[in-house]
């Protein structure tokens, strides 16, 4: 995480997302933000025109900085919202609809 430019390798370089209008991107909060493998994913896949909903777990931090960092790094993306899911169960996520 010290190297902002690091892009860890993905197990699958690209994922076929063409059938989906909304992508839910989930991650652990590391140092108040999303781990760099999320950058790897975003930069390796075509998310143009999709609604993107973030979700995360943490030891206590909220998702605000992660969302701001991703919106700033990728202003072309339509990140519609995000939610912490610490202790959550399915159905708890708010995708803005
Ligand atoms: C390198 C590293 C950095 C982390 N940074 C944060 C942080 O900045 N804020 C936070 O609340 N939790 C932080 N965590 C905790 C993880 O977000 C947490 O362990 C993860 O969401 C999984 O939750 P669990 O341990 O309850 O299963 C960090 C964990 C690691 C390993």
Structural description of this entry:
It is a single chain. With 97 residues, this protein is of the alpha/beta class. The chain has a domain at 22-84: Flavodoxin domain (Rossmann fold, 3-Layer(aba) Sandwich), CATH 3.40.50.360. It contains two helices and three strands; from the N terminus they run E-H-E-H-E. The protein has a three-stranded parallel sheet, covered by helices on one side. The longest helix is centred in the C-terminal third of the chain and has 10 residues, at 64-73. The N and C termini lie far apart (33 Å). Flavin mononucleotide binds next to loops.
What's a quick, concise take on this entry?
With 97 residues, the chain is of the alpha/beta class. 20% of the residues lie in helices and 22% in strands. It contains 2 helices and 3 strands.
List keywords for this structure.
97 residues; alpha/beta; Rossmann fold; 3-stranded parallel beta sheet; 2 helices; 3 strands; globular; binds flavin mononucleotide
